[in-house]
Amino acid sequence: MPVPGARNSLTDVAGLRVGHFTDSSYGALTGTTVVLAPAGGMVAGVDVRGGGPGTRETDLLHPTAAMDRIHAVVLTGGSAFGLSAAGGVADELADRGVGFRVGSSEQEVVPIVPAAVLFDLGRGGNFRATPGESAGRQAVRSALAGEEVSTGCVGAGTGAVIAGIKGGVGMASAVLDDGTTIAALVVVNALGSPADLLTGMLSGGRLLLDGDAPGLGQPDPAEVDAVLAGCRPRTVGYASSPGAQAVQNTTIGVIATDATLTKAQCGKLASIAHDGLARAINPVHTMFDGDTLFGVSTASREAPELPQLHEILCAAADVVTRAVVRGILAATTTRTDAGHWPCYRELAPSTAGTALNTRTADDTGAAVETGTALHTGAAVETGTALDTGTALDTGTALDTRTALDTRTAVDTGAALDTGTALDTRTAVDTGAAVDTGAAGAS
After folding, report:
1. Residue 83 main-chain phi, psi, to 5 deg
2. Among 193, 191, 332, 286, residue whose Cα is nearest residue 248
């Protein structure tokens, strides 16, 4: 029976490093995520299923192509404009002498950097606020610095939306009985719904392992209507059609293992991993999505025999489903001049259980956990108790409909008279959650 890895993260596959660049400054809601290979590169394959993809260097991953190893994978917002970030990643790696050597000097290298983009244009208010070369460079530096890898509304997930709710970056891993590790990083930005449209439960929740989302349950009956309203697949059509959304979606990700796989097997890894999307999102792989998954092997363990390969492939689909669910749960409600996207936990607070620590922050540096991601300049002091005007006893949760005025600084002296010191890492459910470990946005 597979169990989650030590971090339940893509970095449970030894040698992989992940870095984010996040831009939630005024007018922007986008970012870039990079997965760096170990020294010597990694074997890779790809499977593109969506009808509207945006990619770079995927042809090199075909088994008949000459290149055996790649040096990074870039997942980015910005639609086609965001592909510039991959150029920044390649430049940063080349400056460090990382790449395929093509000359006599160690600096004469060409980094092989496949990439996939998602559509988040205009979600911050400025249509042309997109990741460029500097975003790619900063994401590489973040990965090399060994910073803790965040999930939720960070990196390529900053402007992600699924159906009508906030999406984001999710990760999950599994360790098989023989010690092989499989992990996934998925950026959830789909047209389809993540929820059962009868019960409001997250469709992929049935495949979660212990520790994936403590306390997650079925929404209360009173919450179901709000969940269904937020999770119904979006109307599609041409941009000129009233209420319609054009190609504004795409779920992208990386599935990795430490088992030694060929390029063809990495392609199969990516292919089977798409089954994991289908278990968590409905519909999926539509003409209005550009769903693209990369399969990579660090080749640090021996090559599997066919029965072991079967187990790896089956686990790959499951870790993708789990990563999708965890990305949705890690996302925070986000409001910009262009729109408002509630998070699943806000719509179904009864399902919250133990909040996931997403370490997501708003553009002012305010630390925010699994509640509302502030985007309008609100000053929020971590550790500050919010005065709701009601005396709370220590077992009572804040009303999930309590709204923060995002233009007003929260009184740093306000304290709740509970008789018990509040745990500063406790999420105040969905409307105003505070995490003292959160890092400021890039």
Report:
1. -60, -20
2. 191
* Per-residue model confidence as pLDDT tens digits over 249-258: 999 999 999 9
The amino acid present at 362, given as its one-letter code, is: D
187-197 confidence digits (pLDDT tens): 999 999 999 98
C-alpha–C-alpha distance, residues 18 and 233, integer Å: 30
Exposure string over 370-384, b if 16+ CB within 10 A, otherwise e = bbbbbbeebebbbeb
Select 10-334's CATH number: 3.60.70.12, 3.30.565.10, 3.30.360.10, 3.90.550.10.
3.60.70.12
Residue 4 phi, psi dihedral angles, 5° rounding: -65, 150
From the CB of residue 207, how many other CB atoms can be counted at a distance below 10 Å? 19
Q: Closest Cα partner for 355 from 253, 255, 436, 251?
A: 436
Task: Give the whole-angstrom CA distance, residue 8 versus residue 175.
Answer: 10
Q: With 70 as the cut, is the pLDDT of residue 31 above it?
A: yes
CB-based contact 245:52 (threshold 8 Å)? no
* Phi/psi-derived region of residue 347, left when phi > 0, alpha when psi is between -120 and 50, beta in every other case: alpha
Residues 282-307, buried b or exposed e (16+ Cβ, 10 A)?
bebbbebbbbbbbbbbbbebeebeee
Strand partners, 292: 48, 252
The C-alpha atoms of residue 95 and residue 100 are separated, in whole angstroms, by: 13
Which among 320, 323, 326 has a CA at the least distance from the CA of 343? 326
H or E element that contains 110: strand 109-110
Domain definitions of the chain by residue range: 10-334, 357-442
